[in-house]
Amino acid sequence: QVQLVESGGGLVQAGGSLRLPCAAPGRTFNSLSMGWSRQPPGKEREFVAFVNWSGGYTYYADSVKGRFTISRDNAKNTVYLEMNSLKPEDTAVYYCAAGPTSMIGMLTAIAAYDYWGQGTQVTVSS
Question: Which of 60, 99, 106, 111 is the most exposed place for a label (fewest CB within 10 A)?
Fold first, then answer.
């Protein structure tokens, strides 16, 4: 079992920035693929960003490319989502997720991730 704990959400004005950490205590963190997804109000959960086990490969949804950065620190068992130039349409509950070491071909698929955090609310005001 992998426990994931997100933090760092809050209310920010459009154009602002937030950094979301997700802690994953345990010895298996550096073998896990990690991702961030979000669920806007009244909509389905959608993929946001992915980082592989080493941090050497990342992938982003088109809607956040160039504004968001995913990274990980395996020494701290933590994955981060740095969000810049935030827009009101970025308002959502953001979830951290963990998946198997290799997720080639399915890293954007919500159902491919095995473990989820409880989510953290991000609200962007216009």
Answer: 111
Helix (H, G, I), strand (E, B) or coil at 98: strand
Instruction: State residue 76 phi and psi, 5-degree precision.
Output: -105, 5
**Model confidence pLDDT, tens digit, residues 13-61:** 999 999 999 999 887 899 999 999 999 999 999 999 999 999 999 999 9
Residue recorded with tokens 């992915």? 50
**DSSP codes, 37-97:** EEE-TTS--EEEEEE-TTS--EEE-TTTTTTEEEEEETTTTEEEEEE-S--GGG-EEEEEE
- DSSP state letter for 123: E
